[in-house]
Amino acid sequence: MQSRDATYLIAPDPAAPRLTRAVTGTDQTGATQTIPVVEERPLTIYLNGQEIVTAMTIGDYPQYLALGFLKNQGMLREGETVTGVDYDEDLEVVVVRTDTPTSHEEKLKKKTRTSGCAVGTVFGDMMEGLENLRLPEAELRTSWLYALAKRINTTPSLYLEAGAIHGTVLCQEDRPLVYMEDVGRHNAVDKIAGWMVSQGADGADKIMYTTGRLTSEMVIKCAHMGIPALVSRSGFTAWGVEIARQVNLTLIGRMRGERFVCLAGEDRLIRDAEPGAAGEDRKRRSAS
After folding, report:
1. How far apart (Å, rounded) are the C-alpha atoms in residues 11 and 13?
2. 74-103, pLDDT tens digit by residue?
3. 237 C-beta neighbours (distance < 10 Å), count
4. Which three-class secondary structure string do you get for the chain?
5. Is the whole-model pTM more than 0.85?
6. Among 255, 249, 253, CA closest to 267
7. Which of 118, 253, 269, 279 places its Cα 20 to 30 Å from the Cα of 47?
8. Hey, CA dihedral for 55, 58, 63, 67, is it positive or negative?
């Protein structure tokens, strides 16, 4: 059996400059404490000559964030070629250029503030494009889930360093591929979407793992990315579950260690590893 590379394609870099700032305060005893605190900065996204949105973000991977946001909002359509993605760090602006003229005045008038951290925003009809969408019948194994949870939760990250942040990981079977973080879970998902667009990556054989709540907009983004399985450490909203069932998405939440709840796509879940089996096996080996 061919072994696979166990390393991430993109992993968090907690030591990267500009992501955190040292801030001094006092603890419950009055002792001085200096801790790293996550930075927030605005990023304005343009599509050709039109200003689309200003998002609050930690500032890493701005090109991926812009591409993914536009893709998930339906502003980059199939067959449209991206001819350039330019980032100006001083102005904190990303300009995405395409080979055809674009205008989204009507869509921009229909703005919805989402339930996302850092105040997410979606434009136009949230359900647009979902009417006839059915995600592929992709299996999801519990052995993959347990391996992913262990690997992701022990990966050095900005969350472990400073907190106040969400993480989202694109995975394939039991291997985490691309791990993005941001103050808003939607930003982290959009960064992954932007990476997929830039790489021409297919979502049909992928799993999305997130620390955020499984709300309607999170399910919708995952569906538009063509990813048939969405997993979270957090809980669900009823509308998120309804949409997941509608588009054939396997939805798993409240995943803590080897415990989870599946509220959509149960028929595609293969229980090939019993909870606690790996731990019991390790105990038997150490005792022998």
Report:
1. 7
2. 888 888 899 999 999 999 999 999 998 877
3. 17
4. CCCCCCCCCECCCCCCCCCEEEEEEECCCCCEEEEEEECCEEEEEEECCEEEEEEEECCCCHHHHHHHHHHHCCCCCCCCCEEEEEEECCCCEEEEEECCCCCCHHHHHCEEECCCCCCCEEECCCCCCCCCCCCCCCCEEHHHHHHHHHHHHCCCCHHHHHCCCEEEEEEECCEEEEEEEECCHHHHHHHHHHHHHHHCCCCCCCEEEECCCECHHHHHHHHHCCCCEEEECCCECHHHHHHHHHHCCEEEEEEECCEEEEEECHHHEECCCCCCHHHHHHHHHHHC
5. yes
6. 249
7. 118
8. negative
The pLDDT value recorded for residue 115 is: 47
Tell me the two tokens of residue 162.
Answer: 């400073």
Q: Return the closest-CA partner of residue 124 out of 77, 193, 75.
A: 75
- List b or e across 137-163, with b for residues whose CB sees 16 or more CB atoms inside 10 angstroms: ebebbbbbbbbbbebbbebebbbebbe
Q: For the sheet containing 207-210, what is the strand order?
A: 175-182, 166-172, 207-210, 229-232, 250-256, 259-264
pLDDT at residue number 222: 96
Give the model's pLDDT for residue 110. Answer: 59
Q: Are 216 and 112 in contact (CB under 8 A)?
A: no
Tokens representing 169? 């990981």
- Cβ(199)–Cβ(221) under 8 Å? no
CA dist list (Å): 61 to 49, 72, 180, 224: 21, 16, 9, 21
**Structural tokens at position 209:** 């793992």
